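Chapter review: from sequence to fold.
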Amino acid sequence: MQEISKGANVSLTALSEDAGAVVVSLGWTSATGAGDADVSVLLLDENGKIRSENDFYFYNHPAAADGSVQLLGKTPTANGDEDRISVDLTAVPEDVARIVVAASQYGGARFGDLDDLRMTVSDRTGEPLVGYSIEDAGVETAFIFGELYRRGEEWKFRAVGQGYETGLTGLATDFGIDVLEDTEPATATEAVPAAVPAPPQEGGEAAVPAAAPTPTPAAAPESGATAAPEAASAAAAASAAVPAQTRGRASRTTRKKVTLPKVAKKSLAENDTWRTARLFPVPSLKSDREREVRATSVLLSVMAQVPELGRRLTAGFGAPAGRMQTFTEVPLPHGDTPKRPDGVIRVERAGKLWTALVETKTHGNPLKDEQVQQYMDIAARRGYEAVITLSNDVALDGSPVVDVKIDGRRKHKVSLWHLSWAEVAHQAQMLIRHEGVGNAAHAWLLQELLEYLQHENSGCHGFQNMGPAWVPVRKGIEDETISPDDERAVDVVESWKRLIRQVCLRLGGELGQKALPVQRTRRDSDPRARRVAAAAALCADGKLSAELRIDGTSSVIAVTADLRTGKVRTAVDIPAPEGSYPLATTKRLLRALAEAPADLHVQTLVEGENGPRGTLERLRPEPGDLLPRDGAAPGGFRLSLIKGMGNTRGHTESGVIRGVDAAVDRFYHGVVAHLGAFEARGGRRG
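The token string follows.
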């Protein structure tokens, strides 16, 4: 990978023969764990302005209709997580001269509060081409990281590093986007570049956003530069709506898509024994082979029929935007015996084909290194671009879950990617509940896919087994016989990280928000060393710990599983508002928690020591009991819930996996979701 400095540019064509589609990654770390930023992309014409309001892509408008740009969201990496953006340069309209990649913060946060600001550009195989690190961030609340721009027939990348103290408002205005000011008194923060058009003219057409006179901050580029079926009755009630606004920011109102209502229509069944007819039935599935064949066919067929899902699942793997067809059980020559991958995905664009072989496992069955290696060899010989593994396992650090050898001598590169069934369910949930799809029939198809994946017989429930090391490690901790250097403890730590990642996927899909594990370490730290250290801590104190950050909240949720007591503790620290009276603060906190569970533990945080504490049930009639007896002002409060963890590996309702998932779900909905008003009075943390 080539490293460049601020202001430098490089030709993508010179770096790779396969740069027709690239993945742009923006990354940062935060010492507090709460720091984050929103990514946005702007398509600009030769004058440095957007052509229309559809040229601005952000959290509420994540993908271009032509597939040229798609925000892929955050992805775990070895050093935290990255926001990734798929850009199909072959699909970018000819009148687009520049593609600007930016990010913005909110609630008074500054980019100088973040560490390791970095942008990388990779080709469609995932091979990093060029990287750029930002070292001089300070008070800026919006930042242009870099831009892709045309130079004749090729695309080049420029490291920009231009910051704005005026936030996303200033950045957006410079590129010709009309801005809606946020007037909500109880929310954070800055004006919203909603790219909402001016009021309709007499003819009913919305006016294109007016271009702002302010010149762009970045240097100008070098010169020379299938018909859907009728909606089923179940989908007829679907609402054409945009996702609800988040953090008080206005939503787009010009790109209406179909989402399904969260509350189903009243059933016409006489009693609970009547089962709704499903498009993809599963009760008859008896064997693992049947589950794999059915699951592969169901998913690939829906991907081909619902463009939003097909594009969402393949864009991050380097697939172009184009016509997709999918196949199952395709025989491919390999020595004396043909091999049959579970599926094949082909995408056609401009007469060129992108092909991926798919290997599927269900019901917790592991992928086999030898089998995947054979498919990698077949793909390389036939000129295919990728092999995709799909199973209940969750990849750590965005890496494959099998060990294969890639022949570097081959000119044609084949990339290996992994997808979890939990990620498939997450993306389907995001589309049908929050972001929307093109029509009601597509929404119904996605709903049927989700029903299939969540059925107990499908075998597609995601990560559901803590592995063979779980029971002996737990027993060794209970008996105090396990050694700190026991490699099985590292296996348990890795399983714990997979579990936390899956909890984030499920909760994020339900809320329509980004939910990710917090990584506080710097990007140059070694992931293996971190896991070994966590394993040693597990053997010493018998606890597994993690932190989650959910977009739209200012706090970090701490999750601790105590293997000695069999309990899961979920907790959050919230700061006390500055300048308020202590008793008024405690009363306001207890009012905000009026619907919280009675067994919620509340503890006052006092500088240098822990303050008074008690259950919500006891404190409600006596809020003054939370005040320190020496008159010290509370610095904040710690809210925590304790729940049984379960004793089995995770296959039953009492298992640790479902126990942890249920604990996080109960804590978020019962506690964190009610803290908005209290936090708004106290300000937001960066």
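Two observations follow directly from the output. The radius of gyration is 26 Å. The longest helix spans residues 487-511.
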